[in-house]
Amino acid sequence: MAAIPFIRRRRWDTIRVVTDAEGLEKIFAFRYRIYVEEMHRFQKDADHARRRIRDSLDDGAINIAAFDGDEVVGVVRANESRQSSLGAYESFFQLDRMGKDHPPHTSIVTRLMIAPHLRRSTLAVRLCIECYTLGLEEGIKWCFIDCNDHLVDFFRGLGFMPYIGKVDHEEYGEVTPMRLRLNDLEHLEAVRSPFAACLRNWLDNPLAQPDPTVAGGLGD
Length: 220
Fold this sequence. Notes:
Order of helices and strands: EEHEEEEHEHEHEEEHH
Helix content: 25-40%
Shape: globular
Strand content: 25-35%
Largest sheet: 9 strands, mixed
Distance between the termini: 34 Å
Oligomer: single chain
């Protein structure tokens, strides 16, 4: 995926998928600064000696980061179910409920973090848009996330919906699992999601081949 340029006043230059070792290490260090040094959150995979957080989901993950010059200022991670082991998240999100759509067309998104000075900017939405667009390109129909109460409305505004009630997360306490049907244009427009414009552009693209069965029911 091509890097996305932004004007300097927004205080980030690019959002891109990171695959190089140096860039990934910057992401792992950024996670540590946000979760451990700033938020003082328990992180079972934190490497305190090296001041980094890398976990098993990073094997096979798609890590996306926003950069201001060489500095990481925002990150998010996507795991496509067909390409990586989701471990405990398989049962956590009850992905077996998705029937034949899982694993070919499901993904989870985790580790969305923004530098403190950019939390009132549009960067979180921009990172989510990058994840969403990538999902469309990869044939993903369903995306799953979980969040604490203060972020539920943010994700509702993107089009995610709670579906199994609150559950306990070993690191983040009580969270709300939410899911998004990527090709549900009617819902995205109803909640005024920024994803709606992405989907309209995607459907208008003659090279796109949306699945005509996407409007069907769940697999359970």
